[in-house]
Design a protein that fits this description.
The complex is a heterodimer of chains A (about 170) and B (about 450).
Chain A lengths: L1 E8 L6 H4 L10 H6 L9 H4 L5 E4 L11 H8 L4 E4 L4 H10 L3 E3 L11 E5 L4 E4 L4 E4 L5 H8 L3 H7 L7
Parallel strand pairs in A: 1-2, 2-3, 3-4
Antiparallel strand pairs in A: 1-5, 5-6, 6-7
Chain B lengths: L4 H9 L8 E5 L2 E5 L3 H10 L11 E4 L9 H16 L4 E3 L7 H7 L8 E4 L13 E4 L2 H10 L1 E5 L3 E7 L8 H12 L8 E5 L1 H5 L2 H9 L8 E4 L3 H10 L19 E6 L6 E3 L7 E3 L10 E4 L1 H4 L2 H11 L9 E4 L4 H9 L2 H8 L2 E2 L20 E4 L15 E4 L2 H10 L5 H4 L5 H8 L7
Parallel strand pairs in B: 2-3, 2-5, 3-4, 5-6, 8-9, 8-11, 9-10, 14-15, 14-17, 15-16, 17-18
Antiparallel strand pairs in B: 1-7, 12-13
Helix pairs in contact in B: 2-5, 6-8, 11-13, 11-14
Classes of the chains: A alpha/beta (about 170), B alpha/beta (about 450).
Chain lengths: ~170, ~450
């Protein structure tokens, strides 16, 4: 899959309360949650995001609570991919489980807000069109790629019965 | 090469009995609450699942927005109740019967030593205090586990934390974990398991141990864990008299640790985490000038009987600062009843505290104690992120219960020793029995 989108750059330790404030957690509606995405730290965020845009962030993205509402909100506001130096563990698994593409990349400093990125998820290749720079990323272990390829945990679970490796 | 405690449990529970990088394991219990489980139920239904692997191993605990703060919250509880009824899940607990999940599950005997437990709540790591492997997961994970009784894990590496020295006065499990997070940072144990050990951990009781493991997630850890000992056995047998033997699983002597970190706590003071990260930790004395609008005592971190008892000792015979809002939230119905019988609630009431029903409430900015712009709170909760307790421009400091109680009297962040000149009996007993603990 190839994703093209503009970058919204965020800092490190972006926590789940930043991504979606707890007061909205009584909703399970992705559009509504998306409209409140990043409200605590940037009230205009969801209005600025255009469908297909990309979040680029520092280390420990999604730290804090287990709320799956966080990746749901990110997806719901139109973000197509999150690139971060590292992800907090539960956010990481939630993103994989619901089929929100994520990439770990150490070298995020050169990517700025507004840059247009072209990302080939299968090859692990990121092209920054503005600066004509390429970054290659380490691909995820095979077992995670299987879940990602199925579009999330539920589909993987439904199909895995024939898979002898698990 | 030997194995760490967590590796032993994961290996035993993994379907292929191996410790691969990707572990697919059978779980002993899975659960969610009134905000994560309704999403799991929605995913479950959307997937057209129509059976539950074992209704006795599934639980729903309504604690975040209950007693229902509004109609939407009420609807979520109702949806869960209906789901539980449909699939014969007996472990459905509404506001009258449980309390905060991580206080309630251990006291109800739903988690045992050596169990593999997953919960759709990040503070599920609390049960590591019982020597269980317990992991916070998301709603899709929960939906899959309700259906299949399984979950995937990445093989964790373990960091061992060893604490020795004399336990300082008014220094609790909360201070120990805040100090540790202050040292390693909020991503200091990312993807790792934190194993807490050493003579100080062995000297601390179960309630302090729950508090310590509860906040492992605040350092990014997969979970926290403590080797079971006599105290664990006593606790487990008390809450679950049918259990005759508690397995004393330990890490092997030649286990492979990612890192071992040693701390001497003898000279430490009660610790405070300043806004807006749990790792912004300083000594309590450094914040004497911080004026407070609100004090909250409670949460899955510090809402147990001992926590309320420590706060009550510091408050006894005194009243809170005029104009301050002070809220105490017993962690469960059992704790509420015990605190009532012991006279703690009377002390809180006379001091001017409002006694809340058990709920997560203000800890996550849900209800019953939301902050407005510019307001400052001192809370015994676990997170102080931007907007965590309400307005994005409010401020949350984290402390132990005695510090919170002392501070409610002065209206500023205060060391309990400044308020309690005569050391209370409980504390004196603790000090008398205290000797230098070294490994």
């Amino acid at each position: 899959m190839v994703i093209k989108g503009r970058v919204h750059k965020l800092g490190k330790d972006v926590n789940t309360d930043d991504i979606i404030a707890a007061k909205y957690l009584d909703s399970q509606d992705s559009k509504f949650l998306g409209s409140k995405c990043m409200e605590n730290i940037d009230p205009q965020f969801s209005k600025r995001v255009k469908k297909g845009d990309i979040i680029v962030a520092g280390e420990n993205f999604g730290c804090g609570s287990s709320r799956e509402h966080a990746p749901v909100a990110i997806k719901g506001c139109g973000i197509s991919l999150v690139i971060a130096k590292s992800f907090a563990r539960i956010f990481f698994r939630n993103a994989i489980n619901i089929g929100l593409p994520i990439i770990e990349l150490t070298d995020i400093e050169k990517i700025k807000t507004g840059n247009l990125l072209k990302v080939d998820l299968a090859k692990g290749l990121i092209i920054n069109k503005r600066k004509n720079e390429n970054f290659s990323t380490k691909s995820f272990p095979q077992f995670l790629q299987k879940i990602i390829a199925k579009g999330g945990l539920i589909n993987w679970l439904k199909d895995k019965k024939g898979d002898k490796n698990v | 090469m030997g194995l760490t405690l967590i590796e032993k449990i994961l290996k035993k529970k993994s379907i292929n009995k191996r410790l691969d990088n990707f572990i697919y394991a059978k779980i002993d219990f899975c659960f969610g609450n009134d905000i994560t489980a309704p999403l799991a139920a929605k995913i479950f239904e959307k997937a057209k699942f129509n059976s539950v692997y074992n209704p006795r191993k599934v639980g729903f605990f309504c604690d975040h927005f209950v007693p229902a703060r509004d109609q939407k919250a009420a609807n979520n509880v109702k949806k869960l109740k209906e789901f539980a009824k449909k699939f014969k899940i007996k472990n459905f607990y509404d506001t009258n019967t449980c309390g905060i999940e991580h206080v309630f599950l251990p006291e109800k005997g739903l988690v045992k030593t050596g169990d593999l437990v997953i919960g759709a709540d990040s503070h599920t790591c609390t049960y590591g205090a019982l020597g269980a492997a317990s992991f916070g997961i998301g709603s899709t994970d929960l939906a899959a586990a309700i259906k299949e009784g399984t979950c995937w894990f990445r093989k964790p590496e373990t960091i061992k934390f060893v604490y020795s020295g004399k336990i300082p006065q008014w220094f609790t499990g909360k201070d120990l974990i805040l100090y540790t997070i202050g040292k390693i940072g909020v991503s200091g144990a990312l993807y790792k398991v934190m194993e807490f050990g050493g003579p100080v951990i062995r000297a601390l009781g179960m309630e302090d141990r729950f508090t310590i493991c509860n906040m492992a997630i605040e350092a990014g850890a997969q979970t926290g864990i403590i080797e079971p000992d006599k105290k664990t056995v006593k606790f487990i047998k008390k809450v679950n008299p049918r259990i005759k033997k508690v397995p004393l699983i330990k890490s092997d002597k030649d286990a492979n640790y990612y890192k071992v970190m040693k701390f001497d706590i003898s000279l430490l003071k009660p610790q405070i985490a300043c806004p807006h990260l749990p790792s912004n930790v300083v000594d309590v004395d450094k914040l004497k000038k911080v004026s407070l609008d609100q004090v909250v005592i409670g949460s899955c971190t510090n809402g147990r009987l001992k926590d309320l008892g420590q706060a009550a000792e510091a408050l006894k015979g005194k009243t809170i600062k005029k104009g301050l809002r002070a809220i105490v939230i017993p962690g469960s119905h059992k704790v509420y009843g015990q605190a009532f019988k012991k006279g703690y609630l009377d002390i809180f009431h006379k001091a001017g505290f409002m006694v809340s029903p058990p709920t997560c409430g203000p800890c996550l900015g849900g209800h019953t104690g939301i902050l407005d712009k510019g307001e400052v709170a001192l809370a015994t909760t676990n997170r102080n992120f931007i907007g965590r307790m309400g307005h994005p421009e409010s401020f949350v400091y984290l402390s132990n219960p005695a510090v919170a109680a002392a501070s409610s009297i002065t209206g500023k962040i205060t060391h309990p020793a400044e308020i309690v000149k005569k050391v209370p009996m409980d504390e004196r007993r603790r000090m008398k029995g205290r000797r230098r603990l070294s490994s």
